[in-house]
Every structure is written in C-alpha cells, then in structure tokens.
Design a protein that fits this description.
Elements: E1 3-8, E2 10-11, E3 23-24, H1 30-43, H2 45-52, E4 69-74, H3 81-95
Parallel strand pairs: 1-4, 2-3
Helix pairs in contact: 1-3
Length: 107
C-alpha cells in the first residue's frame, strides 16, 4: 500500500502534547501553502525517486505510481476550507497522478 502524508500546519488551538510545527490563529494562505509543498517535493525529487524508483522501497517510478491513501494531518486540515481542500486535492492529482477515485473520510 502506498500512501502520501501531507502535514497541514494550521491549528485551531495549540495542543499541549503536540511537537509538530504549526501556526495558531492565522488564516491559511492556501496558495502559499501549495507553493511550499511544490518546493518541498521538487527539492526532494532525488530522495523521493530513491524511495519509489525501481529497486527502491516502493518498486516503481513515483510519477506513475498508484497511491492508495492520502493522509492529511498535522494541525487542523479543515481550516483550509472547502476551496483550499479542493485545491490541495487538485494539486495532489496533478503532482502524483495515478489511478483510482477520490473520496474523503474522517475518523
């Protein structure tokens, strides 16, 4: 099973047990957040290819990999709002193409 974890560092409140990088009380700038994700993925292309390329841990090229799960976490991803979450989904679909359907589920 292949999964992608996206850390969304925006929080409604600070939890006393949290060690993650986050921001409280600031409206997320979705465009800047997605640009930062793109810089991170581009900057780590060689490392990601090592993990997902032939002979790597994933067994195939990341560009045509089928991702079974996308995990959103960190802070409060819903603070991105419906439009921001839709933009994040569109970015993921462009950046990590694969087969499958999109659905959302919260626990």
């Amino acid at each position: 099973m292949r999964g992608i974890y996206i850390h969304v560092p925006f929080c409604a409140r600070a939890c006393p047990y949290c060690d993650f990088d986050f921001q409280v009380g600031r409206a997320p700038d979705t465009e800047a957040f997605l640009a930062g994700l793109e810089r991170e993925v581009s900057g780590r292309a060689a490392e990601l290819a090592e993990w997902t390329g032939p002979g790597g841990h994933g067994g195939s090229d990341m560009s045509d990999a089928t991702w079974s799960t996308v995990y959103l976490g960190g802070g409060t991803p819903s603070l991105l709002g419906p439009t921001g979450l839709a933009s994040l989904g569109e970015w993921l679909a462009r950046r990590f193409p694969g087969r499958g359907r999109r659905s959302s589920r919260s626990r």
